[in-house]
Amino acid sequence: QVQLVESGGGLVQAGGSLRLSCAAFGIIPTIYSTGWYRQAPGKQRELVARIISAGSTSYGDSVKGRFSISRDYAKNTLYLQMNSLKPEDTAVYYCNADTFGGTYWGQGTQVTVSS
């Protein structure tokens, strides 16, 4: 009944920027936190950034100062602005939402950073 769809991934050179989007569709219960995770080949999934309903944010140490999370309530969309990208940022990025009705995940979008 709830779907999360990521977009905006692609290939970019080191030092460049990308903006990821995650749109929610269906019957959506109240969301108390939402965010972005990523997983690179051979590595564990890690937290990139999260935002709670009150607006507070949290970032992983490896992206702090380079990435920024935001939301648009009118469009039911979550964003991740990624600047100063590095080859080690290469991964599949997933959006996530924790709601009072359950936990939801998107299908993922590939980000590849070349040197």
Folded structure, characterized:
This protein is mainly β and about 120 residues long. It is built from no helices and eleven strands. The chain has strands at about 1-5, 10-15, 20-25, 30-40, 45-50, 55-60, 65-70, 75-80, 90-100, 100-105, 110-115. The strands form two sheets. Strands 2, 4, 5, 6, 9, 10 and 11 form a seven-stranded mixed beta sheet that branches. Strands 1-3-8-7 form a four-stranded antiparallel beta sheet, with no helix packed on it. The protein is globular and about 40 Å long. The mean pLDDT is about 95.
SSE inventory with pairings:
Layout: E1 2-7, E2 10-13, E3 18-26, E4 31-39, E5 46-52, E6 57-59, E7 67-72, E8 77-82, E9 91-99, E10 102-105, E11 109-114
Parallel strand pairs: 2-11
Antiparallel strand pairs: 1-3, 3-8, 4-5, 4-9, 5-6, 7-8, 9-10, 9-11
